Amino acid sequence: MQQIHNIFTKSSLLKRAFVSTSKRNFSSASTRTPIVGGNWKLNAGNGTTYSTVEELVNGLNEAPAPTSNVEIVCAAPTLYLDRVNQTLDSSKFSVSAQNCFYENKGAYTGENSAVMLKDLNINWTLIGHSERRDIFHETDDMLERKITNALNEQVSVIACCGEHKEDRENGTTMNVLVPQLQAMANGVENSTSKSWDNVVIAYEPVWAIGTGLTATPEQAQETHANIRAWLRENVSESVANSVRIQYGGSVTDANAKELGNMPDIDGFLVGGASLDAGKFSAIYSAFD
Ligand code: PGA
Question: Is the CB–ligand 1 distance for residue 179 below 6 Å?
Fold first, then answer.
């Protein structure tokens, strides 16, 4: 951890003038509604059966509702999506898939379809999580097509991007993120509406996922600002200003407040800590 932090502090990227670490100011600086996602991954709550999913759902339903205008999305495993959607308090939480294919039906064994998600009233999906990229070899081209198809079926997208440890250490983080961002932009551009309104970007440094290593608020802010700068230059000023960018990677109840104070951090995508209703509610309450 120390090593990564040293590398980061020495990074020339950190010295760029446009990096702002001033506190988030909800009343004036940002009109973006924070959005916090819980990515349950292949976990049935803290166990392996529906009963442990039910425990998590009950815990979330009993957890304090956020007092401010925060949107919360829980990405359950496919097998439980329908039941979670029927039992999770919809006044507090939306439900999301973790993946969704670019075709809606046919001979695609093992896949999810946007049309079928809609049929079950599930209006969100994650796309391009680094585990999909690294373990299941999803390419930017596939992610682009998945984004287009989801948006065409009115399924909102949390599109993920992130760099590996060696990219960060080599100072090539943005070189790695740009093709991922370009795939997102192409995916939106190829959709019928061409609108970013239903797209959230999750910036998740791969070295921080599930490792207990978190980017410092300044490191995360810097990359979020760089992503926004890329959007400003390559998409539009209004998209750059309005798209919500979540930070993901070992977010906990202990670091959420500080990260959430950063002006370009508009929420989190939370893995491990989202399996604990108390921790997850403390995380989304960081935006109160
Ligand atoms: P983590 O996972 O919070 O367990 O690091 C984040 C994610 O993969 O979305």
Answer: no
Backbone angles phi, psi at 200, to 5 degrees: -120, 140
Q: Whose CA is nearest to atom 9 of ligand 1?
A: 271
Evaluate: CB of 209 within 6 angstroms of ligand 1: yes
| Ligand 1 centre distance from Cα of residue 274 (Å) | 9
List the domain range (segments joined by +) for residue 44. 2-287
Say how far apart CA 152 and CA 39 lie, in whole Å: 23
3-class DSSP state for residue 109?
coil
Could you give the residue ranges of the DSSP H alpha helices within the chain? 2-10, 50-62, 81-87, 114-119, 130-136, 140-152, 165-169, 173-189, 217-234, 237-242, 256-260, 277-284
> Which residues form the catalytic set?
129, 204
CB of 34 closer than 6 A to ligand 1?
Answer: no
Ligand 1, pocket-test mutation among 269, 280, 284, most atoms within 8 A of CB = 269
The answer, as to whether pTM is greater than 0.85, is yes
Domain count across the chain:
1
CATH assignment of the domain containing 169:
3.20.20.70
Tell me 287's DSSP state. Answer: G
1-47 tens-digit pLDDT: 333 433 333 233 333 323 334 445 443 346 899 999 999 999 999 99
Please give the structure tokens belonging to residue 48.
């392996």
The pair of three-digit structure tokens given for residue 17, joined into one six-digit string: 């003038």
Q: Identify the helix (H) or strand (E) that includes residue 269.
A: strand 267-270
Q: In the predicted model, is pLDDT for residue 152 greater than 60?
A: yes
Report the amino acid identity of residue 7: I
- Give the separation between CA 84 and CA 50, rounded to whole angstroms: 10
